[in-house]
């Protein structure tokens, strides 16, 4: 037994050695594939969609991780998703133990390793080569240090992709005998320069494959190696299987680099269209289906969606952020906080950001969300763009400093506004849209306030057949391209003070990175929110910026290119002189040549498209002005209008000719010149009608330029109508008991730091003995500058109205001390027109009349609401609701005082 035992001790190691000798020829464990000690480079360029220019590619002696040298690759990347370099490896079967690792040192975070997998039994009939795909591994987390990047679970990832590959290429797709032939690095993280050192490529569990010449020896093409992902079908999916989005301080990071999400409500449009228009994400009310997820990944897009109810959110791919709806009621906040906490636990090891869109309790909700947004419509309302800019800056003060702010930009009028306009126009389908420049101004005012992403609200598909949708598409593509030009500042810049402008109508703000300052200048006019003012001719605008380094220079980021800006230096400041002020001007101040090179690169990507968009927008505005001119055509029409439209038409034609000749600078100048001429005509036409009213929104058909023919017709109809008797009880404000018994109520929304009250007062009533006063006062501590929302509101008694009636709401208001611009002051709105058609009033030192014209559909019940959203006091008196009745001849319509006995209306001539 001793001998047998000794024999076993000898035989077991011998057998193990024999078995190892058999296995070693076909399987190498922990092999060094390349130690990068030779002088010849071994990484080869593969496809990229980022216009990556190779700056340097060489073996570098010194500063290596192992041995004496490493391989250096330097790129200058444009906008895109990938810039692949691959290293051939001995073809190795995809098995459980197969893994690779490589050491990298780079000045950027987010470099990712991948492996190219070949399916030798799945031949592409178009190329004759086997199909391939990529499976992804680690990303480097620490810049300027050596990081080991590994790719593991290759077989598991391949199994996960087989279902998608079969849905793309058919059930006959055969994944057997799959093998890896390249280790790949995606060197793209964000636009700009990137330097990568590579060392010590190793493989483990490599079961060698023979006879692979058909794939490994395929010829190279200018785009890289044939058969790489991006050629057909599912291989377009270059993003990881689920989004890697997170917050880093005040920055949204997608796959480890800052981004500015450009999101639109999804209405079933082709994703290819939305991607072409520059959107990076869609917003959906439900979690995207598996098919929609695949399409999003295919176009390198994301979704902002509500979390799924019936499955784990961690299983959802392509989600940038989860939107938790904010509901009404007392428990809304506590419900949100609980759901947010549960969602983070369910969303995996790296939960994605949570978005809250709310109108109130912004600080509370922002403490339990990563991204906060709130909504205030300005276009087509009574709130000027300048007030909107101040409000955008001020609401951020209510948010938690740790929350990221997004801007919400409506791209269409509200359903209430569209309904009211249709009733007044007596048509079911009425063309109504914002002007492209209005959307551009609203967006960049939001960006200038410090938002890190923009959500564009949309009620119908952008590809729906209607000219208004075509114009929306033009405007949104232009905005997205301009945002892409300044993405480094919007994504990760910090707001700074120190800018002053010689023109009070130009809103200026600064955003800074470590080496450059971006100046955003937006021209605003008192009624730009209704119809755009033309740019004043031959007026120089000077912007003074303090704290600019002496070596910095100013350059205009224009649509047609990067241009030198006239500038001068003062004591501690720079003065920038803009000869031709655009509606939105973007100027960069820097001495960093890398920033300048990146700007020129971005400009080259976008400037041809931007100029074409300006031409198309000018063409659209010309077509609109011409159609309005024809609708209003009369013998007394001003010849200046016809002359301006004709001149604009000639300039649009010449701009197109210059564009075809590739003279982008001249084409842009002509397009802007034509658009300005059209804007001058449009403003004249609109003002001729708006001048009849103290407040243009008295007549809702004045909210948009394309409604002018309907506004003119309504104005003509009013000449043959007169208001009947008052049908609103209690509006005389004389008897508190009658007021309450008839249905008037006050609504209080307690606000930290403020006390509010409603009082009947004999102090200077408009008529009778009493008026009603609404007051908001700071409390004893006085810690808050203004309320977050309206602390006090008065709602009228309900009024029953018959269908197809024209209604006049009127009353008198006094505001002894001007209310703040950003608060919106006091808002007067009704249930027929909604908040968007209400009147924002901030000053009226004497009793001032307000009037609103409304139309009814089916039998409506109307409520009138007065909200005070600022500290101060407001007096109301003699509020009435009247039904218009027919008169025998030209009669009266609301407007300016005329000196007649009843000076609340103005007589109009036909």
Molecular structure report:
With 910 residues, this protein is of the alpha+beta class. Among the domains are: 27-236, Jelly Rolls, CATH 2.60.120.260; 719-907, Jelly Rolls, CATH 2.60.120.260. It has 17 helices and 51 strands. The chain has an eight-stranded parallel β-barrel. The chain is globular, with a radius of gyration of 33 Å. Mean pLDDT is 84; it is low at 1-29, 211-242 and 890-910.
Show the helix and strand layout.
Layout: H1 2-23, E1 27-28, E2 31-34, E3 44-48, E4 53-61, E5 69-77, E6 83-93, E7 99-106, E8 112-123, E9 130-139, E10 147-151, H2 154-169, E11 179-186, E12 192-204, E13 206-207, H3 213-216, E14 220-221, E15 224-225, E16 245-248, E17 251-254, E18 257-258, E19 262-265, H4 271-276, E20 281-284, H5 290-298, E21 302-305, E22 319-323, H6 332-346, E23 354-357, H7 362-366, E24 371-374, H8 385-395, E25 404-410, H9 415-425, H10 436-448, E26 453-457, H11 467-485, H12 487-492, E27 494-496, E28 499-501, E29 506-512, E30 516-523, E31 541-546, E32 553-558, E33 561-564, E34 566-570, E35 573-578, E36 584-590, H13 593-631, H14 639-660, H15 664-690, H16 708-718, E37 721-726, H17 736-741, E38 745-748, E39 754-761, E40 771-778, E41 792-795, E42 799-801, E43 806-815, E44 826-830, E45 839-841, E46 844-855, E47 860-862, E48 864-868, E49 872-886, E50 892-894, E51 905-907
Parallel strand pairs: 19-20, 19-26, 20-21, 21-22, 22-23, 23-24, 24-25, 25-26
Antiparallel strand pairs: 1-13, 2-12, 3-6, 4-5, 5-12, 6-11, 7-10, 7-12, 8-9, 8-11, 14-15, 16-17, 17-18, 27-29, 28-31, 29-30, 30-36, 31-35, 32-33, 32-36, 34-35, 37-49, 38-41, 39-40, 40-49, 41-48, 42-47, 43-46, 43-49, 44-45, 44-48, 50-51
């Amino acid at each position: 037994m001793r001998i047998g035992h000794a024999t076993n001790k000898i035989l077991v190691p011998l057998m193990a050695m024999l078995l190892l000798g058999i296995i070693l020829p076909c399987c190498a464990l922990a092999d060094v594939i390349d130690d990068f000690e030779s002088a010849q480079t071994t990484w080869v360029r593969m496809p990229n969609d980022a216009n990556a220019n190779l700056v340097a590619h060489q073996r570098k002696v010194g500063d290596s991780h192992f041995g004496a040298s490493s391989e250096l690759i330097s790129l200058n990347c444009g906008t895109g998703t990938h810039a692949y370099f691959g290293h051939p490896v001995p073809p190795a079967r995809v098995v459980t133990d197969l893994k690779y690792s490589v050491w990298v040192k780079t000045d950027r975070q987010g470099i990712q390793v991948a492996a190219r997998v070949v399916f030798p039994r799945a031949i592409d009939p178009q190329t004759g080569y086997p199909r391939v795909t990529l499976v992804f591994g680690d990303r480097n987390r620490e810049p300027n240090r050596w990081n080991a990047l590994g790719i593991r679970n290759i077989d598991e990832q391949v199994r996960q992709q087989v279902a998608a590959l079969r849905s793309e290429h058919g059930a006959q797709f055969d994944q057997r005998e799959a093998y890896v032939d390249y280790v790949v690095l995606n060197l793209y993280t964000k636009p700009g320069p990137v330097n990568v050192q590579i060392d010590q490529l190793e493989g483990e569990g490599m079961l060698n494959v023979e006879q692979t010449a058909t794939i490994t020896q395929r010829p190279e093409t200018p785009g890289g190696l044939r058969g790489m992902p991006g050629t057909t079908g599912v291989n377009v999916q270059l993003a990881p299987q689920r989004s890697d989005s997170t917050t880093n301080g005040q920055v949204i990071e997608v796959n480890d680099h800052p981004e500015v999400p450009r999101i639109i409500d999804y209405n079933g449009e082709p994703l290819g269209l939305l991607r072409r228009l520059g959107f990076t994400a869609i917003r959906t009310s439900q979690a995207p289906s598996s098919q929609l997820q695949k399409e999003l990944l295919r176009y390198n897009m994301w979704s902002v969606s509500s979390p799924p109810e019936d499955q784990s959110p961690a299983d959802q791919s392509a989600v940038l952020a989860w939107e938790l709806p904010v509901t009404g009621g007392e428990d809304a906040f506590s419900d949100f906080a609980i759901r947010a906490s549960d969602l983070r636990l369910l969303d995996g090891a790296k939960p994605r950001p949570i978005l809250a869109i709310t109108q109130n309790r912004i600080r509370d909700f922002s403490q339990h969300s990563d991204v906060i947004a709130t909504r205030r419509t300005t276009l087509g309302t009574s709130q000027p763009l300048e007030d909107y800019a101040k409000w955008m800056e001020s609401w951020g003060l209510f948010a938690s400093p740790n929350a990221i702010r997004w801007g919400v930009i409506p791209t269409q009028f509200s359903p209430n506004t569209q309904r009211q306009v249709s009733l007044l126009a007596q048509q079911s389908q009425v063309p109504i849209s914002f002007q492209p420049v209005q959307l551009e101004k609203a967006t960049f005012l939001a960006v200038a306030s410090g938002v890190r992403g923009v959500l564009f609200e949309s009620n119908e598909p952008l590809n729906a057949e209607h000219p208004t949708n075509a114009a929306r598409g033009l405007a949104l593509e232009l905005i997205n391209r301009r945002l892409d030009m300044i993405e480094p500042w919007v994504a990760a810049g910090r707001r700074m003070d120190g800018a002053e402008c010689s023109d009070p109508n130009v809103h200026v703000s600064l955003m800074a990175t470590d080496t450059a300052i971006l100046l955003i200048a937006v021209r605003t006019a008192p009624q730009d929110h209704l119809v755009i003012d033309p740019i004043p001719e031959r007026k120089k605008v000077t912007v003074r910026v303090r704290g600019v380094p002496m070596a910095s220079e100013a350059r205009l980021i224009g649509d047609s290119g990067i241009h030198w800006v006239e500038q001068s230096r003062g004591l501690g400041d720079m003065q920038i002189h803009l000869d031709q002020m655009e509606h939105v001007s973007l100027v960069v101040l820097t001495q960093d040549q890398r920033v300048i090179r990146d700007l020129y690169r971005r400009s080259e990507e976008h400037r041809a498209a931007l100029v074409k968009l300006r031409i198309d927008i000018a063409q659209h505005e010309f077509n609109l002005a011409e159609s309005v001119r024809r609708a209003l055509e009369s013998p007394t029409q001003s010849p200046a209008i016809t002359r301006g439209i004709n001149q604009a038409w000639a300039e649009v034609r010449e701009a197109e000719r210059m564009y075809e000749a590739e003279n982008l600078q001249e084409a842009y100048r002509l397009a802007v010149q034509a658009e300005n001429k059209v804007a001058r005509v449009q403003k004249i036409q609109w003002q001729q009608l708006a001048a009849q009213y103290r407040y243009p929104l008295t007549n809702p058909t004045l909210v948009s330029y394309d409604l002018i023919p309907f506004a003119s017709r309504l104005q003509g109809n009013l000449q043959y109508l007169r208001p009947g008797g008052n049908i609103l009880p209690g509006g005389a404000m004389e008897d508190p008991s009658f007021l309450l018994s008839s249905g008037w109520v006050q609504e209080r929304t307690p606000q930290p730091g403020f006390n509010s009250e409603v009082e009947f007062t004999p102090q200077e009533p408009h008529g009778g003995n009493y008026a009603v006063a609404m007051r908001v006062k700071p409390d004893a501590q006085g810690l808050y500058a203004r309320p977050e929302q309206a602390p006090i509101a008065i709602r009228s008694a309900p009024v029953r109205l018959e269908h197809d009636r024209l209604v006049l709401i009127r009353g008198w208001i006094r505001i002894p001390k001007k209310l703040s611009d950003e608060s919106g002051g006091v808002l007067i709105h009704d249930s027929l027109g909604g908040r968007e058609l209400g009147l924002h009033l901030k000053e009226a030192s004497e009793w001032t009349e307000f009037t609103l014209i409304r139309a009814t559909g089916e039998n409506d019940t109307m409520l009138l609401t007065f909200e005070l959203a600022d500290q101060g006091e407001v007096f109301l008196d003699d509020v009435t609701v009247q039904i218009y009745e027919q008169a025998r001849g030209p009669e009266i319509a609301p407007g300016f005082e005329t000196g007649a006995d009843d000076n609340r209306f103005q007589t109009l001539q036909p």
